[in-house]
């Protein structure tokens, strides 16, 4: 899935049950090939998960159309099966992890700000 729209950066947070941390990490080392293929086919890329002490999990990915990526994965039998397997690992989550994870608000991006600063500098250059 590609488009001419700007890349959207998505970051989300979940909490893994502390007693299941080792098992959760093992399930991602590696992720099944069919699920990796579905993530890529959905249009998500540069996808990473970061795990902190106590089970705090931060996920990040980029996509050209997040709504389309979400819809693709929601309709995928492979993703539905994977998300059902993953749901018991999370604290206080209602619904599929890939659909119910709370998104974080991006407040700073270096590349965006450098691009804006360069454009502002070019606009103010009288030459």
How do the strands and helices of this protein lay out in sequence?
Blueprint: E1 8-15, H1 21-27, H2 33-42, E2 45-51, E3 56-63, H3 66-75, H4 77-86, H5 97-100, H6 110-124
Antiparallel strand pairs: 1-3, 2-3
Helix pairs in contact: 2-3
Q: Number of helical segments?
A: 6
Q: Looking at the structure, what is the overall shape?
A: elongated
**Helix and strand sequence:** EHHEEHHHH
Which stretches are low in confidence, meaning pLDDT under 50 for 5 or more residues running? none
Secondary-structure-based class equals alpha+beta
Keywords:
single chain; 127 residues; alpha+beta; 3-stranded antiparallel beta sheet; 6 helices; 44% helix; elongated
Give structural notes.
- The structure is a single chain.
- The protein is an alpha+beta fold and 127 residues long.
- Helix content is 44%, strand content 18%.
- The chain contains 6 helices and 3 strands.
- It has helices at residues 21-27, 33-42, 66-75, 77-86, 97-100, 110-124; strands spanning 8-15, 45-51, 56-63.
- It has a 3-stranded antiparallel sheet with strand order 1-3-2, with no helix packed on it.
- Helix 2 packs antiparallel against helix 3.
- The termini are far apart.
- The mean pLDDT is 93.
Summarize the structure.
This protein has 127 residues and is of the alpha+beta class. Helix content is 44%, strand content 18%. It has helices at residues 21-27, 33-42, 66-75, 77-86, 97-100, 110-124, and strands at 8-15, 45-51, 56-63.
